[in-house]
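Example record

The entry below shows one chain as it appears in the dataset: sequence first, then structure tokens.
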Amino acid sequence: MTGNTKPTDKLLDVQISVQNFGPIEKAEIHLRPLTVFVGESNTGKTYLSALIYALHQHFEGFPGSPWPAHTLFFLESIYHYQDSSSSTQAAFKKEILEALKKLNTPERPFKFSDLPQGLRGFLQRRLEDSESFGNRLKRCFDLKSVSKLVRFSDGARNELNVLLEVRETCQTRWNCALQDAGSGLTVRGYVNTNTSFSPAETAVFWELFDVNPTGSLWAPVRQTTEAYYLPAARSGIMQSHGVIASSLIENATRIGLERFPAIPAFSGMIADFLKLIVRYDEHNGSSDEMRRIANALEDEVLRGEIQVKRPVPEGYPEFLYHPMKTNEALRLSQSSSMVSELAPLVLFLRGIVNPGDLLIIEEPESHLHPGAQTAIARTLARLVRAGVRVVITTHSDWLLQQLGNLIREGEANKRKNSTPASADWLVKEEVGTWWFHRDKPVEEISFDRIEGIEPPDYEAVSDTLYDSAIRLQQQLLEKEATDGME
């Protein structure tokens, strides 16, 4: 299909496999532009969402090669600042210069094996840094030990396994495997040395070392992606973020900590969310396309505008809801629960999220009327069209049915080789739906042009309700008939 596509639509294949992870027995997830987790409560949807967030943060996205930005800064320090008087440093600097010569040859691909041996060794050690990885997981899940994530069954502790694999055209570019049987985390990593760097990745080297490519093959633009998490608790946080922040600051002093030694900590996702809200500055801005999606969400669902004010220039922001056709704005605590739920999504789209980022939303349908839930499905499709990678957890049959319709629309236009004027469409390759249920492996729900993407247990619930309604109606008819005969 042509039109309404972004370079960020061409994502690498990211596969995340887990075994005995929290409540999850087994799952194998392929991240799509839109990844949907459905199923019963307490089956691991939030656990896996948090893991995806932790992995994205740790590797600074899911790049073609596992070399976070600080690795480049390490290389830069060697190239620019270190004294090359020692033979070891001089040899390493010579390796870097040789790599740059290969990098600056457009007619040949630049491979991972072209990096200096010292840097490849550094990247391998960084990839297998169990302490750093463990700290990331402990922060996200608010745990003192990663072993607490190991699933128990039949009274015994199993072995936790997590595998992140980044692939392209059926070839593994790199992977990272985590294991914990209760005695501590171990990490193993693999990088395919034949992996060729993409133009965007090699451009980072050009920018870093002031190396100009021969001709005008690619522009040296640094590309980074961020991950953002909208937790299920966002409504309460939005209504009380100022009080929460003030209390945290007050109790962050030594005296405060001594007075309240048992204060529980936030999970990493909630802490990050609160930090972004407390520090929110709309002037930092997202792209124009993100703003258009936010504005459409306000017009179509909220029927009003989310406003940001600062009573004190350096104070915490105050968030207000200004309904259409009224002269007065309301505090979020005075507004409906729907407004409090959707306000952070509007704010993130207007001032934080950009194409290429990962946005994880827990239960975007919370406190929404069925019609509004279908409108949220359209917002998700627009985000995919804009190049945002989205992961959601949901219990909403209406949202899933609307996603099915949006896929049908995209598939129909694909067959006609045309593209709708609006951005409210998807194709089946862009959506991955995963069904979580108790004591069973997570299963993928494939799109069906008749059934859409409805989980099997939804139909069972519907059938049970229907059978119950028929039985009760029959009892009422029988009772009315008996009463009439008396």
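Notes for this example: The mean pLDDT is 83. The longest helix spans residues 456-485.
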